[in-house]
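question for whoever is on the cluster today: can someone run the full assembly for these? two chains, 494 residues total. i dont have access anymore since they changed the login thing
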Amino acid sequence: MKFAGLIVMPAGFFLSIAALVLFPAALPRTAFILCALAVEAVGLIVAIRGHMENREPDAGESR
Amino acid sequence: MTPANNSSPLSDSALILDLVLLILAPLAIAGVALINVGLGRSRSAAQALLGNMVIIATALIGFALVGATFAGNTGGSGHVLHLAGKPWNWLGEGPFFLIGIGNAPIHSQLEILFEFLAIAMAAIIPWGSGADRLRLSAGIAIAAVLSALVFPVLAHWVWAAGWLAQLGVNFGAGAGFLDPAGAGTVHLLGGLSALAVVWVSGSRRGKFPKEGFATAMPGHNAVYILFGCLVALVGWLGFNLAGASLWLQAPFAALPVTALNTLLTAAGALAATYTVTRVRFGKPDASLCANGWLAGLVASSASAAIVSPVPALLIGIAVGVITPLLVEVLELAVTVDDPSGAITVHAAGALVGLIAAGLFAPLPGQFIAQLVGIATILGLFLPLIYLLFKVLNRFVPFRVDPDGERIGMDLHELGGGAYPEFVIHRDDSYR
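^ ran it for u. tokens below:
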């Protein structure tokens, strides 16, 4: 689940790049970039949830 | 490749001032190192401080041998991709091992010196989050990866005429992504590295018992923590003023306001954290107040050279309110064991500073540039860092074995404690 969240996050980055290229006007560009950040936030929340669910007390991740 | 530009935009007196400011900047690193030590346990204090020093050394060597080649400076050359009709300068190009650095223009030398100090700061941030369980060898490996592979790419994008710095020229987004003292390049990157370290290394033994609330594990020396904050202030002034002069070409007349904004942001943050903890717990919390102060300094790295004094104070207050609340959420709700609070202080503080710099900047389109910079660091670098650390953990185990954690990192890794004349009591947190 953590990896799923972390895979989503680069999608937000590419959306922000797409906004720069596709929208010259300030308003739609800003809105699109904010959506891209929202995608990243969702990815981060999923990754954090994955950390909470996978957490074994007093241990790091398996090597 | 873009051609090199050897002309310096700064006068000789400005360059001398920048050198003096950069000589002060290591005090910020010393302050953060002291805070890292104070927020850890007494039985790991020597290992923590030695770790800070070894990590700084590793980061400097790694950056000198490999990283500086890719990071470059504003006058250096870089690799450029042409996509959608625009140039995307994505990687610096220079000689390995700093060959010929002595013949470079003084402005370029100062920029590279700034980058060296920046990576030294960025590398010690995750060490604080891994306190009391992260091996020295792991800290060294993390510093090597950050200094040789990760930081140079971002530093080039932000500072050395990379594509983020060129957002204004290529896409009309303000003056491009502005990060004069490394809020994104140093602190957001370091804070996200801290999160990755906590994810990979896990929590301290006994921190989150199977039943009940998280165990409180307060820092062992409030004097180190608070004195570290005061020391860091001096270094931060050096970083912020040198960054404004080097990366924004701010005139000398603008530097006193930048210094004033740094002070106001830190002061506002401390006042807000003091008030929040006083209201919430009945008494102000020393370590959280220290976190608030430091978060204010981190936010000032993004905004001090860009905004005016009133917004600087407001930014500080906002950071100071967020910091203690986020520390609590991360520990109690999200089970993230971050002894130094680095994720909140460095990552969240930097985010607030970068967004505020976009909101309060006088240039149209600056907010967009700041958002794209944040989206880049968060969306691209966090997954990359976690992946690198995950692979690194297979070769250099991050976490010490249970016996080492029980007896303390000092005895386990160094063979002696930081306070040999003190009696070490049994730890009640082991259940």
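summary bc i know u wont read the tokens: The helical segments of chain A are 2-22, 26-54. The mean pLDDT of chain A is 88.
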